[in-house]
């Protein structure tokens, strides 16, 4: 099996250069997709027969809830690479993703709460879906606290990887909570195996908005991972060269 | 893959399996308490606590909503299509409350099997559609055009 590309990605120097080239494109893509998806969803899409205009919160709520779960799965996958292959780049990506995941989770909880008051009649209820999503927020905060508590980078990366892999158990619990138990939160609309319970003129803007969230995630994760790689590799030659080209020129005329 | 990596991979696999198994056992053990509400059938069968508060969930039965003329008091029945329980409530109902709608009520059961609710929450279903589509469905079902007045038009 040809794994050259995999080993290349594992090299901080190569990965940094790749991320540097990708971020502007991903940034532009996320701006276009978010603008299109949100305008389409919040302005163009038809209202719902029951909820009227209030349902439009799904164009923000659902993508952020999806991303809150995706981000943790991404971190768990990075954690696997850290623990088994000792990949430094994976540790940087994992660390870079955590605050984003926390933001997505927070956004999902807040938008859901704002929608819950007029529709359900309560900002918050302790049903299985809401509670497990709140636990996910605490997992993210715990992960971030753990990263800043351990000064030694390698040790912090490994400890975080273990937490990410242990916490990934919560993801299927969040997803299936609405099927396993009676919850106030409604069941899945789009990710059920038969056809989605949503007409295409609402589904399309939702998917575009979700793609925008994903592109935004990729942009910010790569940017943050670049900073983390620079920090971790500060002592290595290529970072010095990159950071102070004039100084190196001076040293080697 | 080097033997060391293989060993680490096995350890990680065991970790995830172990934590997953523990979580599954824990959730199975607490399954009873993770249920947000009980169904009317469970209430009729006596599977709910009589001495403390609990939640009941189901559909508001058709033609069962009776509102008091001079107060916010309202009576209705919650059904899961098999059994139904009478509910008494005084207060503001959520926007989505109406006959045929899913609701969850907080409260306790009196000796004569009336559920006295302290709070009524609407449970939204996972179906979304534009008002025109809903009207078309309604027309197809009942055979005539319904009076206008969906939420979106108000």
List strands and helices in order, with pairings:
The complex is a heterodimer of chains A (253) and B (154).
Chain A: H1 4-9, H2 12-44, H3 58-85, H4 88-119, H5 128-149, H6 153-167, H7 170-180, H8 200-232, H9 237-243, H10 245-251
Chain B: H1 3-34, H2 40-45, E1 54-60, E2 66-67, E3 73-79, E4 84-90, E5 102-109, E6 114-123, H3 131-142
Parallel strand pairs in B: 4-6
Antiparallel strand pairs in B: 1-3, 1-5, 2-3, 3-4, 5-6
Q: Can you describe what's shown?
A:
Chain A has 253 residues and is an all-alpha fold. Chain A has helices at residues 4-9, 12-44, 58-85, 88-119, 128-149, 153-167, 170-180, 200-232, 237-243, 245-251. The longest helix of chain A is centred in the first third of the chain and has 33 residues, at 12-44. In chain A, helix 3 (58-85) runs antiparallel to helix 4 (88-119) and helix 5 runs antiparallel to helix 7. Chain A starts with a helix and ends with a helix. Chain A is globular and about 65 Å long. Chain B has 3 helices and 6 strands. Chain B has a 5-stranded mixed β-barrel with strand order 1-3-4-6-5. Chain B starts with a helix and ends in a 12-residue tail after the last helix. The chains are: A mainly alpha (253), B alpha+beta (154).
């Amino acid at each position: 099996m040809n794994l050259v590309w995999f080993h290349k990605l594992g090299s901080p120097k190569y990965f940094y250069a790749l991320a540097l080239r990708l971020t502007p494109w991903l940034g532009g893509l996320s701006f276009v997709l978010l603008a299109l998806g949100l305008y389409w969803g919040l302005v163009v899409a038809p209202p719902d027969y029951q909820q009227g205009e209030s349902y439009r919160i799904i164009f923000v709520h659902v993508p952020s809830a999806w991303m809150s779960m995706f981000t943790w799965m991404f971190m768990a996958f990075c954690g696997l690479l850290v623990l088994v292959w000792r990949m430094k780049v994976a540790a940087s990506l994992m660390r870079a993703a955590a605050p984003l995941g926390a933001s997505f989770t927070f956004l999902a909880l807040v938008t859901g709460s704002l929608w819950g008051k007029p529709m359900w009649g309560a900002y918050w209820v302790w049903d299985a879906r809401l509670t497990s999503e709140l636990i996910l927020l605490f997992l993210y905060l715990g992960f971030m606290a753990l990263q800043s508590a351990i000064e030694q980078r390698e040790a912090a990366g490994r400890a975080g990887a273990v937490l990410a892999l242990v916490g990934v158990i919560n993801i299927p619990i969040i997803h299936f909570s609405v099927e396993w138990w009676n919850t106030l939160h409604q069941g899945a609309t789009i990710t059920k195996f038969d056809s989605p319970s949503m007409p295409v003129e609402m589904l399309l803007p939702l998917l575009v908005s979700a793609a925008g969230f994903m592109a935004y995630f990729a942009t910010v994760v790569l940017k943050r991972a670049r900073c983390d790689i620079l920090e971790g590799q500060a002592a290595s030659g290529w970072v010095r060269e990159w950071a102070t080209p004039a100084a190196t020129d001076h040293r080697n005329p | 893959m080097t033997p060391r990596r293989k060993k680490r991979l096995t350890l990680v696999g065991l970790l995830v399996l172990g934590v997953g198994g523990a979580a599954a056992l824990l959730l199975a053990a607490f399954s009873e308490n993770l249920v947000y509400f009980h169904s009317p059938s469970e209430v009729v069968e006596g599977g709910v606590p009589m001495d403390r508060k609990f939640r009941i969930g189901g559909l508001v039965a058709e033609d069962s909503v009776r509102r008091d003329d001079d107060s916010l008091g309202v009576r209705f029945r919650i059904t899961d299509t098999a059994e139904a329980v009478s509910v008494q409530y005084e207060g503001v109902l959520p926007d989505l409350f109406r006959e045929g709608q899913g609701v969850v009520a907080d409260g306790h059961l009196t000796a004569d099997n009336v559920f006295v609710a302290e709070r009524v929450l609407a449970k939204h279903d996972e179906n979304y559609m534009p008002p025109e589509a809903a009207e078309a469905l309604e027309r197809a079902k009942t055979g005539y055009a319904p009076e206008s007045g969906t939420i979106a038009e108000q």
